[in-house]
Amino acid sequence: MLSERVLTSVMRILSPAYLRTEPVELSRLPLPEPGHRYTLYAHVPFCERLCPYCSFNRFLFAEERARSYFRHLRAEMRMAADLGYDFCSLYVGGGTPTILVDELCETIDLARTLFPGIREVSAETSPNHITDENIEALRSRVQRLSVGVQSFDDALLHQMARYDKYGCGEVVFEHVKRAAGKFHSLNVDMIFNFPSQTREILERDIEMVKATGANQTTFYPLMVSPKMRHELERTIGRVDLVREVDYYRIVCEGLAPEFQPSSAWTFSKDVDSMIDEYIVDTEEYLGIGSGAMSFLGGRVYHNTFSLRDYERRIREGRMSVAKAGRPFGRFARMRYRFMGELFGLSLDKQAFRRDFGVPVSLGLAGEVAFFKAVGAIAHEDAETMVLSPKGRYLLLVMMRESLAANNDIRDVERSLLPADEKALLIDDGPHPCMAVRDEMLVTA
Question: Which residues make beta-bridge pairs with 187?
Answer without folding.
Answer: 146, 216
